Amino acid sequence: MVSSLQRQRNDIFLCALNSDPEETSLSNFDTVWLVPELRKEPGRFAKLFNRALEKLQPSLIIPCRDDDVLFLAERSEEVPELLSHALCGSSACARVMINKNASHVFSRRHSLPFAPTIDCKDDPVQIFEFAGEHGYPLVSKPAEGYASRGISFVMNERHLESHIGQSGTVLQAFLGKPEPLIQHVVDVEKHGVPLFQTFEAIKTSIQIFIQKTGIVEGTFVTENVMKQGRSEAVSTALSDDAMEIGKSCAEAFAGAGWRGPLNIQCQRNADGKLVIYEYNGRYTGATSARLLLGYDEVGMALRDYCPELAFDVCDQAVTDSVSRALVSRRATPSVVEDLKEKGVWHAQ
To answer: How far is CA 118 from CA 105, 108, 203, 296, in A?
Structure first.
């Protein structure tokens, strides 16, 4: 997100709330407040958030993680004057996006092609019927997980039985072609477990921006090569069915009160049909890559929420494919020291 602002960085004062004083990116901001992790200490986080609002009076508040999205949506409903500054929509929509059971119910209600999903706390008879209908493998994942963490594959009835009754876990129909996974299981049984293994495939990502008025400003489709839950390569995709899904999702979420960014993660099933498996109400790790591809979602937000900036929104692609690589950086000692001692850091 920060890299997307570099064209007019001197015109913008950036503040970050972060729970890790040794995060290497913090020196890119003008000021940083040290806060506890929202999920672990919500009350203390809320107090510091309110104090930061009072002191800084921000023009735009951008949630960067799933927990932030829900917190900001709920807070904006409690304090309506925040609505014109918070890059989010209704808390009901935020709950839909953060929980895959809720995502499935919302999608069925709006005829959106979401992966068949069932809660592991549901009736065991229904779970076995689900497995019978969709077959093995099934995908087990946290109902409120992200970045592919905690995902496993249910290959047979014995695996399925071990998942029944698990709280906070869902099963989804497997998307893509199962043959490589099935062959891997056979190879492991025959040869042992390899040190490195992954079953991530190319995913289709649909990014949308919904203005404060509810107007959909942009829809952009990419294909992302995934490794360890992050996109390593992002390329522009010309996909009619993805654009149609994006249009339908934008109408459904805008109508339900969502505003700001909407990310839709999809994958093709064995029949080639594009299926949704996750929603996000925030910018993602590929935001800066999409800027290089000609989709300036951060600029759209600044133009909509901060018109006084006259921010130059970029719609010119410099490439049609972007590689994303890890960069070695160190934490800035003065940032770490000030945050640990004072709880706040200011750029000189």
So the answer is: 10, 13, 22, 36
Question: Given pLDDT bands bounded at 50, 70 and 90, which one contains residue 125?
Answer: very high
pLDDT for 222-265, tens place per residue?
998 877 667 778 999 989 999 999 999 999 999 999 999 999 99
| Distance between start and end Cα atoms, the chain | 22
Q: Supply 330's token pair.
A: 């160190």
Quote the tokens at residue 346. 């200011």
Cα(324)–Cα(93) distance, rounded to whole angstroms? 30
The whole-model pTM stands at 0.91
Q: How far is CA 63 from the centre of its chain?
A: 11
Checking phi first, is residue 257 left (phi over 0); if not, alpha (psi -120 to 50) or beta? left
Closest by CA to 34, choosing from 291, 347, 344, is 344
CB 300 within 8 A of CB 60: no
329: three-class secondary structure by DSSP: coil
pLDDT digits (tens, 9 = 90+) for 308-340: 988 888 888 989 998 887 788 899 999 999 999
CA dihedral 95, 98, 103, 109 (to 10 degrees): 20
User: Going by DSSP bridges, is the β-strand pair 344-346/15-18 parallel, antiparallel, or unpaired?
Assistant: unpaired
Burial 221-244 (b: 16+ CB within 10 A, else e): bbbbbbeeebbbbbbbbebeebee
